[in-house]
Amino acid sequence: MTTGYFLGFHFGLGGIGLWLGQFTKIAIAAIRFLLRFRDRMTLLLNSLISVKVR
User: Fold this and answer.
1) Residue 18: how many other CB atoms lie within 10 Å
2) Closest CA to 31 of 39, 20, 43, 19
3) Binning pLDDT at 50, 70 and 90, where does residue 51 land?
4) CB 18 within 8 A of CB 4
5) Residue 17 has what pLDDT?
6) Has residue 51 been placed in a domain?
7) Could you give the number of structural domains in the chain?
8) Going by fewer Cβ within 10 Å, which terminus of the chain is more open, N or C?
9) Beta strands in the chain (DSSP E)
10) pLDDT band at residue 49, thresholds of 50, 70 and 90?
11) Phi, psi angles (nearest 5°) of residue 13
């Protein structure tokens, strides 16, 4: 079940709950993408640094 479904129908917020649920999911996805990007860039930079040291 999605966040919007629970906010909209189970908590009685209606359309506002659906929009809040959508916003929440998009915000969580954006944070996860940024964290993954940071981790990938850290791995890339560490591998480039180790190549230069050799």
Assistant:
1) 17
2) 39
3) confident
4) yes
5) 94
6) yes
7) 1
8) C
9) none
10) confident
11) -90, -10
The residue written with tokens 């999605």 in the block is 2
Q: Is 28 a domain residue?
A: yes
Is residue 10 domain-resident? Answer: no
Radius of gyration of the chain (CA): 19
Residue 53, SS3?
A: helix
- 4-39: pLDDT as tens digits: 999 999 999 999 999 999 999 999 999 999 999 999
Q: What is the spatial distance between Cα 4 and Cα 21, in angstroms, rounded to a whole number? A: 4
Q: Is residue 40 part of a domain?
A: yes
- Domain hosting 28: range is 23-54
Q: What is the pTM of this model?
A: 0.75
